[in-house]
Batch of 4 targets.
Target 1
Amino acid sequence: MVPRLHIVLWNANGLARHVAELKAYLTLRDVDIMLISETHFTSKSFIRIPQYTVYDTQHPDGTVHGGTAIIIKSNIKHHLHGHYNQAHL
């Protein structure tokens, strides 16, 4: 059997208020990688999810808008290549 990779894209429009829903979805759908836009995180907000590694960026002006997150199942070999954060992206 050929291994599969389950990748999901989601525009959260504020991730902090959807953490319980996110954790349930990751487990129920056995998601390997999740790409999230509009996290609305600041330097004081973050999430942790068991069995996953979470990489996130905040909008450079530090306010609650924009932002991204990449959530990767911990058993998938990966590394952070660099950190790129621009207001126009």
Note: The first helix runs from residue 19 to 29.
Target 2
Amino acid sequence: MYRTFFQDFGKIVTICTLFYLSSLSIRCQDSIPNHKLRNSIHIDCATALYIGMASVNFERTIIYTNHYRLNLNSGFGGWYFVPIPREYIGLSVPLSFNNLIGSGSNFFEADLGLRYTFLSERSNKDRFQYFPILNLGYRFQRPNGKGLLFRSFIGYSGLGIGVGKLF
């Protein structure tokens, strides 16, 4: 059980590292004229009747134009799924590309990716699975790249909100 957990956790750390290093190589192209528009940290929560999640995320802008931004998002949190009569709950690692379309402070957001989960059933059976991340919603962030970030979305994990800080 623990051997599988550490093997899978090692895979997730490798994938996160590759995503981060690829965003650094894209940085050399200077597609973002203002270097203060690059990073954010935010907390997301979502729930529906039988499914939900909460996570702390780090997001890095890799493509920036006047009306479009592409962000690379990774995080760590919890996830649950309650099909009757069982209950699965556990840790999760979301990895996604977040597309922002709009200008000024208001954006339409499309978040696409995968969530790797370490689920435990009540009967102590462990399951490791991938679940899709598909969120559509609204995002508010200041154009100067500092201050509050607010997002509301609907997706595979239900109805959600997120609050964070741009830096």
Note: The domain at 2-166 is CATH 2.40.160.20 (Porin).
Target 3
Amino acid sequence: MIATFLFSSCASIVTRSVYPLSINSNPTNAMISVTNKRGHEVYSGNTPAVVRLPASNGFFSKAEYQVKFSADGYEEITIPVTFSLDGWYFGNILFGGIIGMLIVDPATGAMWKIDSEHLSVTLRPSAISATPEMKIFDINEIPEKWKELLVKLN
């Protein structure tokens, strides 16, 4: 019983180190790609989806992810998924002790919690169509990134 108390930690007991992230989009069935902070793809699929994400990126290092949404006829969008320090980590002062605070919770990732377990995005229709067509736009209606590509005609 003493060993259990000494080698356990507060956040590891009360929280988890892997979190489910519910991902939805409008329109549904959008393609998604989840990458970690090193740029490695950890998940690829379509919405709706539930992805299990580790909270840690190594000892004392929180995880960060990017979720890229894409669908034909819609603008691609990337949303960050972040983690922050779990308040239960400070419970080690009373329950887990120095071992929990400096070894167990940082090693298991239980010291971090996901900021939101739900991600829902509405994709915007793309102004550029896959089918060639001619459209006339007012200068005030086009995106700023297009304005950089404009050429003045005399």
Note: The chain has four helices and eight strands.
Target 4
Amino acid sequence: MTRKSEQTEVVRKIVVFFDICSSTSILEELLRTENEKLWRNLIISLKRYLTRKRSSVGFELYKFLGDGWILLFEPRLDGLAIFEFLEELSDEFFSLYKGRIRNVLTTRISTIGLTFGMDIGSCITFVMNNQREYVGRPLNVAGRLQGAIGQRDKNPQNKGLVSKNLYATFIDTRQIKRKYRVCTVNRALKNISGGEDYRCLKVELK
């Protein structure tokens, strides 16, 4: 007999992987000046913001990764709403950073903001240690896309790389392009089949 915790299900999700630019440099300086609690407080405040928004925007706050999160959206036809939320999230982060961190830093850090990787596809979901877990290619691709934003881009903050597979599902691409700068780019994605010269869309939220 299969226990409930061992049961698996295949679900289709939009995966958004986001990370904080220069987080290592910021945290190292805060540690030197014994202000590391400020970083902890910023992360907690950002999580509270995401928790407040998840029902109205429509996403699952899946996993914290040290300086960013994985967000899971149900497949949807309107991409503009997702990008508008990510823009708002970027504004919220910068407001928290400016109000709580920037004034105590002794060195100027120019690359401040969030970076995003996005894909869509089937994930296997199951329960492990009383937590719902997901595995699948879209999580790997979204993570690699987020990590590849800095390739050939000295100012990656507030930008996202979106798989062509995901972008093709949106019916409002004209509206997206009217509001945001969108261009096709090639990136090298490590440990992804076909990732040696991966074509995707770069979306600039600012």
Note: The first helix runs from residue 23 to 32.
